[in-house]
Write a structure and sequence with these properties.
The protein has no helices and 10 strands. The chain has strands spanning 3-7, 10-12, 18-25, 34-39, 46-51, 57-59, 67-72, 77-82, 91-97, 110-114. The strands form 2 sheets. The protein has a 6-stranded mixed beta sheet with strand order 2-10-9-4-5-6, with no helix packed on it. The protein has a 4-stranded antiparallel beta sheet with strand order 1-3-8-7, with no helix packed on it. A hairpin with a 5-residue loop joins β5 (46-51) and β6. The protein starts with a strand and ends with a strand.
Amino acid sequence: QVQFVESGGGLVQPGGSLRLSCAASGSIFSIYAIGWYRQAPGKQRELVAVTTSGGTTNYADSVKGRFTISRDNAKNTVNLQMNSLKPEDTAIYYCNPTGSSQLSSWGQGTQVTVSS
């Protein structure tokens, strides 16, 4: 049984940085590709970054060059370093496995607000 808890969100000015953390419970974390998703009011949830079980990474075009995803399988954590934040990055951010292993119940997420 795997559960994910997100933290690290907050209010920052445009151009600022935040580091989000995803802490997982369970013993099978290492086999999953883990993604960071975000959802703003009135918009669909989108995948912004993913790290595979082998440690490779991929990013949505909207965040490429600004966000960095990383994982530590020994600690069951996935992080998202967000730099050069823009107002359009404002959303609730969630972590979850990608694909068929994704949990049907999403967690609380962590709120990121970018505003001057």
